[in-house]
Amino acid sequence: MAVLTYREAVRAALSEEIERDENVVLMGEEVAQFNGAYKVSEGMLEKYGPKRVVDTPISEAGFIGMGVGASMLGVRPVMELMFWSFYSVAFDQILNNAANVRYMSGGQISCPIVIRGPANGGTNVGATHSHTPENVLANHPGIKVVVPSTPADAKGLLKSAIRDNDPVMFLENTILYGEKGEVSDDPEFLIPLGVADVKREGSDLTIVTYGRCVLHSLKAAEVLEKEHDVSVEIVDLRTIRPLDIDTVLKSVAKTHRVLIVEEQKPFASVGSQLSHMIQREAFDELDGPIHRLATIDAPAIYSPPVEVEQLPNPDRVVKAALAALA
Amino acid sequence: MSKKSTNTADVASSGSEKAPINAQLSPDAKIELYRQMVRIRRFEERSLRAYQAKKIGGFLHLYIGQEAVCVGSCSLMGKDDHVITAYRDHGHAMAVGMDTKPLMAELYGKATGCSKGKGGSMHYFAPDKNYWGGHGIVGGQIPLGAGLAYALKYKGLKGCALAFMGDGAVNQGAVHEAYNLAALWNLPVIFVIENNGYSMGTSQERSSAGPGLAQRAEAYGMAWGTCFGHDLYEVRATMDKFMTRAREESKPAVVEIDTYRYRGHSVADPDKTYRTREEVEEYRKTKDPINLFQEKLKSEKVLTDDLIEKIDAEARAEADLAAEFAEASPFPTPDDIQTDVYWEADNADKRASKGRLFFD
Fold it and tell me: Residues of A with CB below 8 A from B150's CB?
């Protein structure tokens, strides 16, 4: 075990998998010579050389599509999007080609590609750079979607994603890159996709969340316990598709009250899907309606102090939790 | 023709039958090339009848008139050469050696289809024959073609990728992004523009700026060439040059092959608005790739009238047999809808992930 930042944990996963499998190649804008737009891949070009760590032009449709094609022939590309927001210019390559090629070929073709990069608001970069497309991605059967919240999860899940034979979308977070945590240095440390993690145990309210909102929820839970005598359980989904709904339902059966916290626009979000499943599968366990805290429904505002309020934050989580308990 | 005349910078000479790649063909090999074209045409004519009889759903984009392009190009493929194309994909599928029974069954939406009835006309695949589709979005397959070439280069294999597109694809951004990557990284890919003059119902002069489509390669420092797609020898001579260069020197190229389709864009196209009957008839009379090759082989004393008739009868019988096979085959069932979505779901014993993959 070592204390690593989220950034270092991602780098460790990439490095270990590049060392383990000669077909793994990291590609993206500024990943090599520039050392990564967020320094995730710092030092990797020097260590692994230009065949394994490849700078691409700013050409997402081209290089993501190229990665999809290469993966059909057995290369295992890990493609970095500088921002997940840029997926929109590669939408056809990701969600028509990577998502569908297995199906349309009657199962003859696999597409073992990972597309990764940060997907978050909160850095005052405006509406074009603040997308959280996990719901859009997960709406496409054939695609898997991972959103890790801690350094350990980032490492263990990314290693599993790279070894996965299906296309995996891996959504990181620029604000989390500097967060620290204990991370295993075992090269076989793998966290399977589709396993949620109870990040905090509690008895009065279940908060179902993922990504950076896990950290907001943990802070809010401290306040709720100290100031309101409320015991909160926090379920971190970690993976959106496949989805570990069983861990969610188990927690609901324990607390009987649910708040979903997500950095998503509310319409047809991951939370929408979750609330449908919870009411459908645990209706009798609920002591009240399912509550949800999402990003306020508008394009991402630039104004720095106001953007904090548009996104979920610990104060908003506290208020939403109290409403869910009322 | 409402096409702009293509720049003839690198048009293969009319003596393409003397090119070594053609001169070395045995009489039997020539007959096989001829037979391939006839088989493709008869298969498609049979599929059109099945469509008109409402046996086939959706779209049916016929390749009739363009046969020499895919047969000529794919006849040059070695074991590490790969091919990908757009939705007018029946000819390429047969040219790489796919059997007509599963091809016809796929059109009928049957479980015995090459994609188990999940892809349809636009989505034929045979990775065991280095055939990677069959893609529905105009130009969307071209970055994938560059990726096949990237994989060949990455693995140190001496092959090349053929990425086919129509003339309508050349204005898509993804095509230009793939051009740039291929040229930047010297990927062994040949971008083949099958220029049949019309992107759906819009002629080249109404859709594409500039003097010629292949010439756009110059902007990327890529080699390019053009040739006539009604002449099978010329297609082979031209493609051989660029494929050999791609394999030996790992260099990409753009090849524009002038061709023509006799049918509408798809069978849903009444084909009455954008070109004249006379134009189609003129091409059919003077430039039909099968007729021209037939005449050539007759003059070479390779084909006889008896053999021509035999090949034609066999091709018709094969197409009928494929239709009978398709007709007799079962449809997939609703239980099949959720297979072939995830590798992990199809290989449950090797599944590493947990949780729900499917939702209701």
Answer: 66, 69-70, 75
Are A140 and A37 contained in the same domain?
Answer: yes
**Closest in A102, A190, A196 to B341, CB measured:** A102
Interchain CB distance below 8 Å, A93 and B136: no
Question: Which helix (H) or strand (E) element contains residue A80?
Answer: strand A76-80
Q: What is the pLDDT of residues B276-320, one digit of tens each?
A: 999 999 999 999 999 999 999 999 999 999 999 999 999 999 999
Pick the CATH number of B16-350 from 3.90.230.10, 3.40.50.970, 3.30.70.890, 1.10.3720.10: 3.40.50.970
For A220, B10, B106, the CA distances from A322, given in Å and listed in that order, are 11, 75, 57
Condensed to tens digits (0 to 9), the pLDDT of residues B40-53 reads 999 999 999 999 99
A212 and chain B in contact, CB less than 8 A: no
Q: ipTM beyond 0.90? A: yes
Under a CB-based contact definition with an 8 Å cutoff, are residues B261 and B64 in contact? yes
Both tokens assigned to B149: 């070439």
pLDDT digit string, tens, across residues A255-291: 999 999 999 999 999 999 999 999 999 999 999 999 9
pTM of full prediction above 0.80: yes
Q: Which of A154, A183, A212 is the last residue of a domain?
A: A183
Alpha-carbon distance of B335 to B342, in angstroms, equals: 15
Looking at the structure, do residues A179 and A218 belong to the same domain, yes or no?
no
